[in-house]
Specification:
Blueprint lengths: L2 H42 L5 E7 L2 E2 L7 E6 L6 E6 L6 E7 L5 E6 L4 E11 L2 E7 L6 E5 L2 H6 L15
Antiparallel strand pairs: 1-2, 1-3, 1-9, 3-4, 4-5, 5-6, 6-7, 7-8, 8-9
């Protein structure tokens, strides 16, 4: 094998190894950022927003918007609004108020009646899990919907046109 051929092979190998090192470095930095965001969320609370659907251990129970709860925050006044369609009600809206625990929110209806409690377990990098209870004792698990699935559904803001259930 000529000397120039060996040199080319070594040059190609060194370039490939260098590229692999750069890719691995970016992956490591990305994981560190994800980990740092998770730690910050655990300490200070996670951002409550997105559409959640009932979840079992094996995955979402339903991707049907008729059984979901969504949260949206207003940048203007930091108010968190929510809307829910459940099996028992047509549609309910209201606001979520933070408690002393940065992971627990009290939900009140638009009529200012207490509706329930949400415990936001985690929310990071497009994944999230929360627990919802109407009575404070029995909690249902909800998972954050994948953005692509949520976009395929009817826009949750459209739900606001339906009348609130009387419970």
């Amino acid at each position: 094998m000529p000397h120039t051929m060996k040199r080319r092979i070594l040059l190609i190998l060194s370039a490939a190894v260098s590229a692999l090192v750069v890719v691995l470095l970016f992956m490591l930095i990305g994981q560190q950022n994800k980990f740092a965001n998770m730690i910050r969320g655990i300490q200070e609370g996670f951002e409550l927003k997105g559409t959640y659907v009932p979840y079992s251990g094996s995955g979402p129970i339903s991707r049907d918007p008729s059984v979901s709860i969504y949260f949206d925050d207003s940048a203007e006044d930091a108010t968190i609004t929510w809307g829910s369609r459940t099996r028992e009600t047509f549609y309910v809206t209201g606001t979520a108020t933070a408690t002393e625990d940065p992971h627990i929110y009290m939900l009140t209806k638009a009529t200012v009646e207490r509706y329930g409690i949400v415990h936001l377990n985690y929310m990071n990098a497009g994944e999230g899990m929360l627990y919802f209870s109407k009575d404070g004792e029995h909690f249902e698990r909800y998972a954050l919907m994948d953005e692509h699935i949520a976009q395929d559904m009817t826009d949750p803001k459209e739900f606001q046109r339906t009348p609130e259930a009387t419970s």
